[in-house]
Specification:
Blueprint (H helix, E strand, L loop, with lengths): L13 H13 L10 H46 L1
């Protein structure tokens, strides 16, 4: 099962999504017998790559946030020591 095939949510995979949807329209019965399987495999691979990029970006963002939080905690600890 794949996520909804909306082009604006998956710009990296837009070309493959369009080809996959066209294959399903062009082959309404053959799609059940593997006519569009190659495109489905490519689509799944594209979604995996897209997810890996998002995961990496989220990880980098969380690292920045953790560093900011640690700096804030140190700053607050120093202020408490001075008081």
């Amino acid at each position: 099962m794949h996520p909804p095939l909306t082009l604006h949510r998956h710009p990296m995979c837009a070309e493959i999504i369009e080809a996959f949807q066209k294959c399903h329209v062009d082959h309404p019965v053959k799609k059940f017998f593997g006519e569009c399987t190659d495109l489905k495999i490519k689509l799944d691979q594209c979604f995996r790559q897209e997810k890996a990029l998002k995961r990496k970006a989220n990880f980098e963002e969380s690292k920045k946030f953790k560093e900011q939080l640690q700096a804030y905690k140190r700053e607050m600890a120093e202020e408490n020591k001075e008081s």
